[in-house]
Amino acid sequence: MTTDQKHTSADGELTGSEILLRCLIEEKVEFIFGYPGGAVLPIYDSLYYGSIKHILYRHEQGAIHAADGYARATGKPGVVIATSGPGATNLVTGIATAQMDSIPLVCITGNVPQNLIGTDAFQEADITGITMPITKHSYLVQDVRDLPRVVKEAFHIASTGRPGPVLIDIPKDVSNAKAPFSYPETVFIRGYQPTTNPHPLQIEKLHQAIAESKRPLILAGGGVVTSGADQELIAFAERAKIPVTTTLMGIGGFPGTHPLWLGMPGMHGTVAANRALLECDLLIGIGARFDDRVTMGRIDKFATSAKIVHIDIDPAEIGKNVDTYIPIVGDVKRVLEVALQDLPVSQSEAWLQNLKDLKQQYPLTFKQSDNTLKPQWVIQHLYETTGGDAIVTTDVGQHQMWVAQYFHFSRPRSFISSGGLGTMGFGFPAAIGAQLAYPDRTVISVTGDGGFQMTAQELAVVALANIPVKVAIINNQCLGMVRQWQEVFYQRRYSEVDLSGSPDFVKLAEAYGVKGMRACTQEEARQAWREALDHPGPVVIDFQVDPEENVYPMVAPGAGLDEMMLGDEKP
Amino acid sequence: MRHIISILVNNQPRVLARVASLFGRRNFNIESISVGESEEPGLSRIVIVTHGDARTMEQVSKHLHKLIDVIKVQDLSIQQSVARELLLVKVGATASNRAEIQGIIEPFRASVVDVGINSLMIQATGDREKLDALIELLRPYGIKELARTGITALPRSMQIQPKAHMHA
């Protein structure tokens, strides 16, 4: 088909792929993260003339994590396109990652023409079926005339209520078929009407519980970040005089420098946060889902003397993991706005003093060393030199916990990490997405030597487009967190955690045309990091750290929060 | 406790798969499932029999409501309702005991719907206990084949002691 035919159709009709692009423009999509292939050829042909910027990744997993990073940094849905079969199945980890952390994504996959669906045709996969348990919703478009409504609904579903990934699977014949274009202005989905406003009676009960409480605590989760409720949370905590602990997903939702902040709770939480959870008489969960990394799955030992208030937009989260005394369904920002009116003050003076003492008595510490580089020191150094404003992305593991512990984020959407699924290979591509959204902010991808090797091929993308992501590899030459567990729970039987054979990361970076540096001492680290910040393009720094270092405090799985291992750390 | 959950859904491809896979994924058990058209064009009614305590049922209901294609969820076992299933059973029968079998099924208001040289096919409807009882009575004659539809159900119009819906 030639350009002229496409753009001067006598009947005023557009092809499915052109309709799709027009829909994405209507949705004000800035970037498409993707990878072409046979079943999406018509879509890529339409993109050729389009105004939306497409970024070509080297693997679909890189593309979807980048779309995810963009979504987490901006709050807007990320858009990813992949072809049928292997293209689509390569998205699966990214879709599951977004689903677990409630991230708005619109995932567009091509499929084989409808007359071939179900025949095990070349590059055919039942992606709608495969992703059913890990999407918020999905569509298989069977008629080109449905496409505008489907796209409109997909963006609406992905970004409202509890956000999540929505899949649109488009057979090739639908992309090629023609129809007149008109984009619907409104959405009505009968089975989907999220509750945003809280029930006034429940707010009254919350107020009463606060007025009566002597040891109140806020457990703030990712919902605070998602709904943009950080200012309301600060006002709420300050006025009611309630200390705050932020879950991994809630980091940045409350300033890490605020006097009421206790740090992160749970498995690698601070002593102050975990003691507060054990001893509080009122626990207000705000957009937090009481995950087993916080409760340790030991509900019998979790906040046993507390009345639990649970504020969440998803009614299914309330009562799922812990019994709730006051359930409040609604958008977190809206709930806090309403709750702030006539908010009482708790009787928490003694409690706050007690927690302040605990914070001083049990700060997060690590042993300094003259001849080895400590990973915690590296994170602290990144924090001190960039302040709490940098965007930091991570994978999963020790480096992730050290960022959560030692980088005190001052604003939301700055800590971008795979919380729920714990996806290795997430951080680096996510940093690319975040940097595209905010070209002027410092974006640091803190990663492990294991995770980085899962998506390192995306160095090509940062090199080609000169995307100035700073990659800080916390290189302990092993799978650190797995090694830590084997040390503590498997009597040091280090089974398959040695990552010897990894490439020289400096040379790897250079092979892609990216500046690479190595640091083995504090002085080298300071120097390399200074150079990295001054360098206008992407940088990879291989921080060779003490391979024996462990993350403390630690609570063993199955133990209660009262059984914290503190290590023998002294500053 | 045994629960009969009635779910009104959009009649879209894969909706049954979404509902069934939700049960599997969340580790909820399905004892029987039946689906068919509802009173409204474009909507189907899925009836699922499951087991669980009140907490599990609350979770079942909330998670079903999260599915975009689910319009309404009711627990019919906490209100007065009519629940029926259809049984087709083929039993061994000879010329000499046909009348005897006829006598057994008559109080069940079951009927013979097919006659073979050595067998009879019997159709019966009712609640599960009634059909279980009928099967036990027919067992001595030799059950050759058997199929049950699973429960379908509707709430009664007159609720003598109405109880609240789960999450209407």
TrEMBL record, chain B:
GO terms for molecular function: acetolactate synthase activity; acetolactate synthase regulator activity. InterPro entries: Acetalactate_synth_ssu, Acetolactate_synth/TF_NikR_C, Acetolactate_synth_ssu_C, ACT-like_dom_sf, ACT_dom, AHAS_ACT, AHAS_small-like_ACT. One of its GO terms (biological process) is isoleucine biosynthetic process. It comes from the Bacteria. Gene3D superfamilies: 3.30.70.260, ACT-like. Chain A, domain 2. Pathway: Amino-acid biosynthesis; L-valine biosynthesis; L-valine from pyruvate: step 1/4; Amino-acid biosynthesis; L-isoleucine biosynthesis; L-isoleucine from 2-oxobutanoate: step 1/4. Keywords: Amino-acid biosynthesis, Branched-chain amino acid biosynthesis, Transferase. Belongs to the acetolactate synthase small subunit family. This is Acetolactate synthase small subunit. The gene is ilvH.
